[in-house]
Amino acid sequence: RGDIQDYADLARLGYVTRARITQIMNLLNLAPDIQEEILFLPNTTKGRDPILEKDMRPVAAVPHWNRQRKIWAQMRKDRLE
């Protein structure tokens, strides 16, 4: 029928592990304004991306959005400016 019941179903459909789905889904815990900023970061044309998904995992693990914003602001300053 096409219904997805859990992360295992989603992982099978995406050909990734359940752990990877969890990592990606945890990014939804980021404050909405941080998510938006990430979506609108400029494309990297040379070299490596300055901010990777794995860099955002510890930020997403912080339960308080105001604390996330402070961590994100420092990360932006260190890597994007």
Task: Describe the protein in words.
The protein has 81 residues and is an all-alpha fold. It has one domain (7-80). Helix content is 60%, strand content 0%. The chain has five helices and no strands. It has helices at residues 7-14, 18-26, 32-39, 53-60, 65-80. Helix 1 packs across helix 2 (18-26). The chain is globular and about 45 Å long. The termini are far apart.
What topology emerges from the helices and strands here?
Layout: H1 7-14, H2 18-26, H3 32-39, H4 53-60, H5 65-80
Helix pairs in contact: 1-2
- Largest sheet, if any? none
**Class from secondary-structure proportions:** mainly alpha
Q: What's the domain count?
A: 1
Rg (C-alpha, Å): 15 Å
What is the succession of H and E elements? HHHHH
Query: Whole-number average pLDDT?
Result: 95
State the helix count.
Answer: 5
Classify the beta-strand content into a percent band. Answer: under 5%
